């Protein structure tokens, strides 16, 4: 529990310094996967402010704490976006993007799961998650990093869900 509180405090300070008003954090306890500690993060849309046919974004994280393993499409992303990819730009920077030219695969107002990001925990400290470089139809979306069920902090845009 102390580790969770320390992570929350460090991220809250970083967010305040960076000027991100819509972000806050709460960190997930690692799940055991064989002999390695793993962290699974859910990225979801919450009351999408606009329809999406193309999108791009980066998720930054602390590479001394986490090593990216894979990105799995889930929920709303399984229904479209056949052209989708994710890759490591450099340690600590995951770039994701996709396009579905046929229609608004993610219509305005929709909420639901998009991706599960899986990381291997390689060190101790704060993961320092941050959204950066929104492109295309999600450029104006707001963001939140924290618990999935945070009714006290609604957002129209992307949520990086990190639950206990």
From TrEMBL:
Cohesin domain boundaries: 40-122
SUPFAM superfamilies tied to this protein: Carbohydrate-binding domain
Pfam families referenced in this protein's UniProt entry, alphabetically: Cohesin (PF00963)
Biological-process GO terms, alphabetical: polysaccharide catabolic process
GO molecular function: carbohydrate binding
Name the record gives this protein: Cohesin domain-containing protein
Protein species of origin: Desulfatibacillum aliphaticivorans
